[in-house]
Amino acid sequence: MPALFDKDYDGSRLRIGKLVERTPTQRQYDVTYRGDGLTISGRIAIPEGEGPFPAVVLAHGYIDPDDYVIGQGMTRERTWFADHGYVALHVDYRNYGSSDSEGIPGADLSIGYTTDVINAVLALRAWDGPVDDDRVALAGRSLGGGVVLNALVAVPGLTDAAVVWAPVSSDVSDIYRHFLSGPERADLRAGIDMIYGSPRDNPEFWRGVSSRTYVDRITEPLLINHGTADETCPIAWSRETVRALRAAGKDVTLAVYPGEGHDFIDSFEESMKRSGRFVEDQLR
């Protein structure tokens, strides 16, 4: 993580591609942008009207890159934000969609994805489209929630607010134990152990790549949405993240959804309305 603090970010050259969807309230396009020597793909939703509009950059959760299609993972959120007057830029990340590939997906513990999201914010602000670059937020789901926390730590003041749904733990060793324990991830686990050492063998490294270690750097208000029945990312992870942030004197809100699982099937609209009010209040 400290390597991200002093990194030179160069997100630029946001390019609009083909129109993939149009409704009475918005248009959605495939996009690419440049950053970190790579071309990263994604999808952007633009409200109808002249703008300029506030904007939100979206970081999706884990999907097998072999099964992923452009813009997958936060389709509902992208559409909702555009329907409510936001330009919404969904980032595919490196190794996803039509983005350039680099390394082994997941082996760098989302540091590359974090760089891609930071560069997306910069590319969006530099774009000559209808974006109010003084009103930009970050939003992420699951793995993308962890990416958002990384970005907030890496570049304080990058955006004006952040929202996450069912985020992974801010302690990366929790993620290692929870997601890499099964036989289907044995090869990835062995590769990570060979490069970095396990959390038991090299705890200093795992603290060093965890956003929780550096939450004192965060400046943006943060809303965390989490369901009590989430078995993929236990709500206890978010409670620990909130405790760390509050201990550091940070502005964080935890919204709890009784009985809701990881995918926010029943509470999606409720969580979006809450998140929309939160972002609107912060971007005024």
Automatic annotation (TrEMBL):
GO terms for biological process: proteolysis. The keyword Hydrolase applies. It comes from the Bacteria. Transmembrane segments: none annotated. One of its GO terms (molecular function) is serine-type peptidase activity. Coiled coil: none annotated. Residues 77-265 form the Peptidase S9 prolyl oligopeptidase catalytic domain. Gene3D superfamilies: alpha/beta hydrolase. Keywords: Hydrolase. Belongs to the AB hydrolase superfamily. This is Prolyl oligopeptidase family serine peptidase.
